[in-house]
Amino acid sequence: AFSLVSGRFGGQAARAFTAGGYSSARATMTRSLGAGYNSFSCGFSFRRASNNTVTYPIILFLNGTTYQIGLSLSPDGTLNAGRYTSVSASTTLGSSASGTITTNVWHYIEIEATINDTTGVFRVKVDGSLVINLSNVDTRNGTPTTIDNVEIGYFKSGSETGANFDYDDIYVTDSATSLGERRVETLRPAADTAQKDFARSAGSDNFALVDETLVNGDTDYVQGSTVGNLDRYTVGALSSTPASISAVQLTAFALKTDAATRNIALHCRSGATDSDGPNYALAASYGKFDRILETDPATSAAWTSTGVNSLLIGPKVTV
Questions:
Q1: What are the Cα distances from residue 72, in Å, to 82, 90, 146?
Q2: What is the C-alpha to C-alpha distance for residues 218 and 166, in angstroms, rounded to an integer?
């Protein structure tokens, strides 16, 4: 199962765990990348909150349902880079020193990889230090030459008392050059603006119906029924002034309430520039929609903390 625990810098992290004594139990989450990538990098903060007694994968990369490569953790704190044919079947390509991962300590792990039968690359950094450096190795399993899914969690097989693996601050890019340690900070709607076309399920403040930490379905919500309806909200400020910002991601959970085709956009206003982005088709049950902006629409340059803190965001009915 998964639960929410305190994150590396506050906020929340995902904890993967299983109850002790269960055989072949799993607690994993898979995220689609939306496209296939031959070369990529992935970073995430990781904490082994309680010890595992068997070597398990902590992250796997797939094409569809076909496993390609992954990283496992041994009880002595060794990380193992492997080519996987299933969750429990792998060929170890290289390993770090023992004690690389310390129990109850947040570490930042980065993977740089290229999928290839003969010229594959698999590099692993922990807290900025290179601990596994493999090139010209076989990182390809089966027919696919790319990965399009990332799976994290607790891939338990066999009975033991159970371990807890915590994940936070995850990124994936389409380049085999890692970004360096990153922090993901969640900013929620903080106030309404004059632009609020959506109807409210209750109360008088639109932002207060979509600012919850956990999605609550129909408990409270805003609803638009006319093409062009738009809400804009201010967001809370960043907790610090970062040296650089890799991207801003807008996220919404939405559904349609009738049989007609309905689309929304994840709108933002930066400075005097409005940006709707792509249309997202809604279904009759809630779906999660993400829009990633690597640059500020107002400047076409990298985001600054000033740009993020002054950003206005909200849903727009487009179809």
A1: 8, 10, 20
A2: 29
